[in-house]
Task: structure prediction
Amino acid sequence: MQAGMCMFMSGATPVRGVEPLRPLRKLLPILLLFLLLAPALRSQEVMDGIVAVVDKEIILQSELFSQVQLYALQNRIELRTQEEVERLQRELLDRMIDDKLLLVQAEKDTSLRVTDREVSEALDQHIRQIRQQFPSQEEFERQLAQEGFTELKLRRKYKEEVKNQILKEKLVNARLRQVKLSNMEVREFHQIHKDSLPQRPESIRLAHLLVSLQPSEATVEAIKSLAFRVLELARSGVDFSELAAEYSDDPSSERGGDLGFFSPGDMVPEFELALSALKPGEISGLVKTQFGYHIIKLEQRVGEKVKARHILFMLRPSQEDQSTALRLADSLYHLVPTGTDFSELTREFSDDSDSREAGGELGWYAVEDLTPQFSEAVRGLEVGEVSQPARSEFGYHLLKVLDWQEARYLSLEEDWEQLKEMAKRAKVNRQLVNWLKEIRKRYYVEVKL
Result:
């Protein structure tokens, strides 16, 4: 299981990370904006139109409006006057133009490639982090459904944007690798910025043992048996939409399983492979994907686009499966006071393959960035102590505090590598600003705001 470090964090980066370059937008906040601000966006009429043209790319009024809303949300500011709104619009539009210029330049660089796997993994990570902002999987799906989306549709909507984001990051990273930095430049950077550098927050170094929440063989067989019975009903002529409404675990069940029209590459490969073998009106067998078992009905083909419905049976652990996992986690927790070595327990029992061989070690985190359940679990623990089982979407975790640091200012002696990386990025950022000015001279840019 590739649980990864992001399970512990509220959409943030590890404490040893470095701030992203200014012109690049993060996709995670954009997706969160879609979920959190969609009702507000619907309640305000946005007259759409083109506010800027960059080469063959355009920026819409609605896109700019969304960026203004996102900026206000992230920075907890209230725009009180029209002058404040217009000033922020001009600043953000300038950033968006830079962003488009980077994309145009990246697309012309034949040495840069983005694979489907990179896009899929990035989408997985973004959606996983968004899901952690909600109390439960059900609440996440309910919010999606309120906006007329499923997880599949959300992936489809942002797939191209994720691809573009990766492409731009590869372009910037290629320039980053070319930049050379002397020790003197690092010291000068620290001297100039030491009063304005962010403080290293209170930090904690963690190890964990994960007992994953997986459906047992009996649970999988029960779900599969139900799926086969529903498949028989569908093939016998029972209305597919009614079956989807009654049995599907996907929010599209409210629309009879309707997924609308989509293009090649929008769905996961297994789903599209099954669709490719169907004629309009035909129903697939059981199709296994990362989401569970699907029954798919192809409705139309229009050029490369297809319209389909599906019934999804998610492979969720039963209540008994959850109880079994908790009992195991609790038993392992009670072994710790007996003198059993935590790293040895982790190597034998942890389901997190990323950290298992390292004795469960995960590295440093800012305490303020821990997810609520893990923040609560480690509260009050001393270095060397282990928490009681803490629940996440992945399962039950035993967390061991390996080290702790109080908040402090960055210093050359203790934080050289981080300061070096920050100085390097600052140098790249300066070069990037000049580079973007040069790029603007090569491409057509028109502001219509």
Confidence is low (pLDDT under 50) at residues 1-6, 9-30, 36-46. The two ends are 49 Å apart (CA to CA). The first strand starts at residue 50 and ends at 54.
